Known about the structure:
By secondary structure, the chain is mostly helical. It is about 70% helix and about 0% strand.
Amino acid sequence: MKRGLKYVGRCGYRTIYVNLDVYEKALDAAWKTGKSLNELFNEWLYNFVGQTGEMPKVEADYSRLKREFLGLVRETQALVKTLKDLGTYEELTGLAFSLGLKEDLSNIREIIPKIMDKWTGDQDSLSIFIDLLETAHRKREVQKALNEIRKRQYTPLIESTAQLPNQGSDVA
Length: 172
């Protein structure tokens, strides 16, 4: 009896067959990156198809960046919550800004060593705060890249919409 495809016509999932050794190595590699094997495989396929010219590379990058941004937002929120629960968020944030941390986090490479030298409190909190700075910095970079892609995607649409005739002007 033929096995039906799961979610036929809705999601478009397909089954593939992979050598067990390759699958296990890929699963280990995916685990090390913090992504699921499905995410990595889809990312690889998007990039592969994008390189062959069948699908724009920008679309693959856009999808990957959206997923990465969402993950970074969640991670940032979790780190802030952890530091607040430990009662060190305000103190570490104040220290960082007093040492010259810029709002756009562009100078974290210079500030992190200073924070490490000045902080006399809990070392776990310091480590979590440094993770927070690095994650927030990456989140800003990804957000900038997403905004650039969105501007390129929607600018032609906005320009073409602006050139449409005003359809409601001759209504009396």
